[in-house]
Specification:
Number of strands: 14
Largest sheet: 6 strands, parallel
Oligomer: single chain
CATH class of the largest domain: Alpha Beta
Distance between the termini: 33 Å
Number of domains: 3
Shape: globular
CATH architecture of the largest domain: 3-Layer(aba) Sandwich
Helix content: 40-55%
Order of helices and strands: HHHEEHHEHEHEHEEHEHEHEHEEHEEH
Structural class: alpha/beta
Strand content: 15-25%
Strand order of the largest sheet: 4-3-5-6-7-13
């Protein structure tokens, strides 16, 4: 059955809230602007707004409109995750129509797209990003393959955050008359902001992948990280675990913080009595730090029965460091990690996965930017789902 119009509008507004464009306490779109942007009637807009009000995402303030409430982005991501459906696409704007005029045959064969990756620690050269940014490498490869299939040209650039490097990229984007720019980056995303502002002055469409960009003129594609953590908490509680630990990366990463917040939201919903406990520990690569963490996981007074790894690569590196020191992860410890299935082999017998399909992110990114370039109305944010995968031994048996 086709969903009601207000349901589709509500999902579109949730995607707008999840896009990273707004901040807590800021003013949200007015009812009149929602009607204009999505071409809906006032009763439809009013019904969708009421849903946001009832769920605490916005609050009505006299003579100020609707203000964004606490944790509105996390709540929006959770609602998108728990209530799947289709969004109402925004109507065409003058910018969309102008692009259609400039591309009268709607052919993508002439598009030239700049693909920008984080140079990381590996130095210059083609396709040599830091190994820790495996996701960006996989997604960019899929983007390139999809672009090649549609006869688009992709030009690679590597950004290291230095001024001369950005000068070079900006000049090359101008000189080669690129049609759009796509950033594949998960780490140190704060370095993107001023550079993106600079590229936007060239009136180029800009898309970020793995980052909820804060600029209203930029589209973003990311996984529903809140949903991944939420599902992990639900699964572990259903299996009877009440002592949980979260293995966080050595530096703050927004995606991992969102996954941890999703776990906390899941615990609140599925364990209202507060019987379960969650310990947050930090992974560090040194042998001494890993041995201390191993002691925490094995000591009878503190040991958890389940571990959540927002970045599964941290768990794998932790396990390897312990193996080199003659230790191992307790077999009774159940582990759920977030990451790509290609990182896991059948020897990871106690590991389950909230799978992130980085190749799908790359393909989605290409079609999103192609739609923008051909004048097809698109959402500001695309939220990709995660898929639960059971233990490696069960996957092999299946």
């Amino acid at each position: 059955m086709r969903p009601f119009l207000y349901h589709r509008l509500t999902r579109a507004l949730l995607a707008e809230l999840a896009s990273g464009t707004y901040g807590e306490g800021e003013r949200f779109l007015s009812k009149r602007k929602i009607c204009r942007l999505w071409n809906v009637s006032e009763p439809t807009a009013k019904t969708a707004i009421r849903h946001l009000l009832e769920n605490g995402l916005i609050a009505a303030k006299p003579r100020s409109g609707y203000l964004l409430g606490p944790d509105f982005q996390q709540k929006a991501l959770l609602l998108l995750h728990t209530s799947p459906g289709t969004s109402l696409p925004p109507p065409s704007t003058w910018t969309d129509k102008r692009r259609k005029i400039l591309q009268p045959d709607s052919s993508a064969s002439r598009f030239r797209i700049g693909l920008i990756l984080d140079q990381g620690k590996s130095g210059p050269g083609p396709l040599r990003p830091d190994r820790s940014d495996f996701a960006a490498l996989e997604a960019s490869r899929a983007f390139f393959q999809e672009a090649t299939t549609h006869e688009c040209e992709v030009l690679y650039f590597y950004q290291n955050g230095k001024k001369d490097n950005e000068e070079f990229i900006a000049s090359e984007v101008r000189r080669k008359q690129l049609d759009a720019v796509v950033f594949f980056r998960r780490f140190r995303v704060q370095l993107l902001r001023p550079f993106i502002e600079r590229l936007l002055k060239q009136t180029l469409p800009v898309l970020t992948v793995f980052d909820d960009c804060e600029h209203s003129a930029v589209s973003s594609i990311n996984f529903n990280n809140i949903g991944a953590g939420y599902d992990a908490a639900r699964i572990l509680l259903e299996k009877g675990h009440r002592s949980l630990a979260a293995l966080m990366p050595p530096r703050r990463i927004d995606n991992c913080e969102q996954r941890l917040e999703g776990v906390r939201l899941g615990l609140r919903e599925f364990d209202p009595a507060g019987e379960a406990s969650l310990s947050v520990v930090q992974f560090r690569r040194t042998e001494r730090a890993c041995l201390q963490l191993h002691d925490f996981l094995t000591e009878s007074g503190t040991r958890p029965t389940a571990l959540f790894a927002p970045a599964v690569s941290n768990y794998i590196n932790f396990k390897r460091t312990l193996a080199a020191a003659g230790r191992r992860i307790p077999r009774r410890l159940e582990v759920i990690g977030c990451g790509s299935p290609t990182l896991i082999d059948k020897r990871e017998a106690n590991l389950e996965l909230m799978a992130l399909d980085f190749s799908a992110a790359g393909r989605t990114a290409f079609h999103h930017i192609k739609n923008i370039l051909t004048g097809i109305p698109t959402d500001k944010a695309v939220i990709l789902p995660t898929v639960y995968m059971p233990k490696a031994t069960e996957r092999v048996a299946g």
